[in-house]
Write the C-alpha cells for this entry.
Amino acid sequence: KNSMQGDAKHLNQTSLTKAISSLKNPGIELELVSQGNMYELDTAQTEAIFRICQEAMTNSIKHGKASKINIFLRYYAEKTELLIIDDGIGCKEIKKNYGLSGMENRVNELGGIIEYGSDGEKGFSIYVSLNTDKRIKNIDLFANQIKKGKQPSQITE
C-alpha cells in the first residue's frame, strides 16, 4: 500500500544507453555493450554520441547494406569512448558527405577525437573519444562557487 512498484532492469543504464537502446530499425540488429563504471555525460556529449549512433545506423543500412551493428561504450574516469562496427559490405574509398561531416563537426566542437574507416572488403567502423576531465572539473568549480555563496544562475564557467 505504501510502497512503490517498478522494474529494476534499467537501473544499470544511463540516459545515453537508454536512448541508444531505443534506436530500432527492422533492417538491422543492434547490439549495445557498455564497459566500465557508467556515469551521465553532459548534455552536449550525450547528444553527440546519440546522434553519431543514429547516423551510423542510417549509413550502415543505406550504404553498407549491413544486417548487424555493434556499439561499444567504454567509460573511463578521464574519457568516454564509442566504437561502432557494422558487418556491411565495406568500402575501398570513403566519400565524406553530410553524415560523416556532421559526426566530425559534433566531435570537434567537443574537443574530441573521431576516426572511421573500412578495410575495403567488409564492414565499417567509427571510433570516438570524448574527454570527461572537463566535466569533472566543471562540477568541482560549480560546487566551489556554491560553497562561496553564489546562486546557480550566477555561475557562468
Remarks:
- The CA atoms of residues 142 and 155 lie 7 Å apart.
- The two ends are 46 Å apart (CA to CA).
